[in-house]
Amino acid sequence: MLRVIVVEPEGDYNLGFIARLCKNFKVDELVIVNPIASIENAKPFAAKGIDFLENKTRVVFSYNEALKDLDLTIATSSIADIEKDMLRRSIKPWEIHDFILNVKNAGIIFGRESVGLTREEIMKADLLLHIPANPEYPVLNLSHAIGIVLYEIYNHGKRGTSGPPINGKYVKLIDRYVRTIYELVKPSDESIEMYVAMRRTLVGGIRDNEQARAVVHFLRKLYVTLVYSGEDK
Amino acid sequence: MLRVIVVEPEGDYNLGFIARLCKNFKVDELVIVNPIASIENAKPFAAKGIDFLENKTRVVFSYNEALKDLDLTIATSSIADIEKDMLRRSIKPWEIHDFILNVKNAGIIFGRESVGLTREEIMKADLLLHIPANPEYPVLNLSHAIGIVLYEIYNHGKRGTSGPPINGKYVKLIDRYVRTIYELVKPSDESIEMYVAMRRTLVGGIRDNEQARAVVHFLRKLYVTLVYSGEDK
């Protein structure tokens, strides 16, 4: 299941275009967090995607609620790959398909037209996605960014370069272990970057389930050792 | 040089979005044929692409003028690959880059929001491009289609699947020979499909310049033989 999540969209036309794109590229559901745009005014822009707006779109009033029941969450940003900012390490649109292939419920999260997603919102997602564009002006309009991402997911297989999958349960396990281990080892509350970097590296670097199993196994061993050595002292 | 050509665009917002996308993905120029939309009203939608609209955009009043000085022209349509319609045989967005790589001046042509390009307009282009989407509703909004195509061209190399190039002069030569040969052999004026099919097959099937040279050589031989056998009779 593929869910598109849009946080506080501002433009009626964008909301309509997004619903149309969801239908064009067979998305399963659209979840809108605190819309500023009007769904009613968006309808003309949805064209024949109007039924998607009426039947497959939900409005929710919290970010966490929008992410509920998802095994893998991918935030998006036009700001990415900044030196020393682990939160901004990104995957590219042509890599998404590999990450969501064996995931039961995947969600891709898009931010506000004006300011995108907050760091806190990006932090809650498993991965960050960035669309490479002109360094002088890489900021795409919201619905155009969504169009590119959905096009990539819909057409990926046809390119004949489908990569190996990673199961959603491993993504969850890796996050849980990394977070727990981080809490056990963190030098201070200011060192959250350590956790973010490790999570990004692991979820982004694994190419198949066998590799994922091995990583989880290692993390579990690490965790058990840490907890027991703590008890011994 | 990459030129985007938009024929009779109707929506101000689309025109603005298109200029923004041209800047996002480093297009060289935008040529608008007989705009119905207002460039002035489009400006707010161009955001920081407004300078592209002001400095790198031209309005022309004929389709042929928009295609002037181009070595390779690619028309676009949401209607493609219909049985027995050679004009509708299409290439996909991820294949464009290979076709334009060694072409000096390439143009990609997009039609009206309401009815797209006419058959006559498609006929004048070397290739037809189609974005695969949901068969139940494959019709993308104009500016979103442009966004996907420009994204593909801009990012193609990064995927690491760059294919072999074909030089623009061969594209022109192939068209000239095929057209001339067609004129020499056509059974009737109703058989134009023959020419279209041959042109599409040759321009679309060639993968490198060596192959192109061989095809042109064959066509030239064919032409000379046809002309001389006509004189002998």
Automatic annotation (TrEMBL), chains A, B:
Q: Which InterPro entries does the record associate with it?
A: Alpha/beta_knot_MTases, RNA_MeTrfase_TrmJ/LasT, SpoU_MeTrfase, tRNA_Cytidine-2'-O-MTase, tRNA_m1G_MTases_N
Any Gene Ontology CC annotation: cytosol
Listed SUPFAM superfamilies: alpha/beta knot
GO BP terms, alphabetized: tRNA nucleoside ribose methylation
Source domain of life: Archaea
Domain tRNA/rRNA methyltransferase SpoU type residue range list: 2-151
Q: Name one GO molecular function term.
A: RNA binding
Q: Which Pfam families does the UniProt entry name for this protein?
A: SpoU_methylase
Record keywords, A-Z: Methyltransferase, S-adenosyl-L-methionine, Transferase
The record's family statement is: Belongs to the class IV-like SAM-binding methyltransferase superfamily. RNA methyltransferase TrmH family.
| Alphabetized PANTHER family for the sequence | TRNA (CYTIDINE_URIDINE-2'-O-)-METHYLTRANSFERASE TRMJ, TRNA/RRNA METHYLTRANSFERASE
Q: Which NCBIfam families match?
A: tRNAmeth_TrmJ_Sulfolob (NF041077)
Would you tell me the protein name for this molecule?
Answer: RNA methyltransferase
Q: What is the protein's species of origin? A: Sulfuracidifex metallicus DSM 6482 = JCM 9184
